[in-house]
Amino acid sequence: MKTITPMKAWMSAATTAEQELLAAKAGTSRGMLFQLAGGHRQASAALAGKIEHVAFEMAKASKGRLPVVTRTDLCAACQRCQYAAKCLGERAVVSEFPIVSGEQLEQQ
């Protein structure tokens, strides 16, 4: 069963132009964003931080249409980092969009 990740939700909500803008501002490629969204790659802490910053700004600009993606959504090292947990607070472990469980998907 496929998992819906915060990055996958962001990629689904974003236009191609928005995806390209995020990639350019974060210093990566649109293809890498798809790799991260699909869980095929893990971002480095540095890339995860850049994506978090740009995605946050884009979420504000879109008035909430685009979800916020945090560094802890993208990088295992950030998930374990005490500083990320301290700085992000609840956002370090909770994404800002509802996660759909496998059971909920099967019911639809």
From the N-terminal CA to the C-terminal CA, the straight-line distance is 14 Å
Low-pLDDT sequence parts: none
Order of helices and strands: HHHHHHHH
Which shape, going by the Cα principal axes? globular
Structural class: mainly alpha
Strand content: under 5%
The overall number of domains is 1
Radius of gyration of CA atoms, rounded to a whole number? 13 Å
Instruction: Work out the helix count.
Output: 8
Give the overall average pLDDT: 83
Q: Helical content, roughly?
A: 55-70%
Biggest β-sheet description: none
Total beta-strand segments: 0
Write the layout of secondary structure elements.
Elements: H1 6-13, H2 16-26, H3 30-37, H4 45-61, H5 71-74, H6 76-80, H7 82-88, H8 102-107
Helix pairs in contact: 1-3, 2-4
Task: Tell me what you see in this structure.
The chain is an all-alpha fold and 108 residues long. The chain has one domain (6-96). Helices cover 61% and strands 0% of the residues. It contains eight helices and no strands. It has helices at 6-13, 16-26, 30-37, 45-61, 71-74, 76-80, 82-88, 102-107. The longest helix has 17 residues, at 45-61. It is globular, with a radius of gyration of 13 Å. The mean pLDDT is 83.
Short description:
This protein has 108 residues and is an all-alpha fold. The chain is globular.
Question: Any key phrases for this structure?
Answer:
8 helices, globular, 108 residues, mainly alpha
